[in-house]
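Possible regression after last week's pipeline update?

I re-ran a chain I had predicted before the update to compare outputs. Posting the input and the new output here so someone can diff against the archived version. Not blocking, just want to make sure nothing changed silently.
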Amino acid sequence: MDLKELGGDPPDPKANFEVIMSLLSGTTGIPRRILLGSEAGQLASEQDRANWAERVEERRVLSINPGILDPSIELLQRVGLLPEGDVEWVWPSAFIQNPLEIGQTQAQIARSVGNLSRQTGASTPMQILTQEESRNVLGLEDEIPEGDLWVPPDWQNPAKKAASGGGSESDADKAARAEKKDDQTRAE
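New output (post-update):
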């Protein structure tokens, strides 16, 4: 009796898995890299994260608030468990920047502010942000606590200094100018 081997390779489920994942990703609006997580060192791109954040915001506004939260609150108000009145839903941002992206964003804002401040054509840039606005751009508290603020003893408000006849040149600028003049004299 001769035995014949009926060649049969085990089926590879990878093709079926890929088709199912593509269908799930396309149907739900969840980017594939976010749906599957990071495999083989692949990280979700910024575009994937932005698309997913947009989808989450959309679901919050169009489905969760009107379909789940609002009816639940109305029911609780009708039975007297919650006081009557309007409820405002405040959600945290769906798109959260990583520390590198935060730093890049702040650097870009700083460059923009610097470029705008030099648009006057004057030799010195114009101040276009208040201290409070600058701190808000950096994500810091609105005001510096009084004890944490250090002001050099010889510092004066430029408007005050001009009004008192002090001129606009600081002592440090005068010293630097004098040192430069001395260097030029020595070079000759």
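Follow-up from reviewer: compared with the archived run. The chain is about 55% helix and 0% strand. Marking as no regression found.
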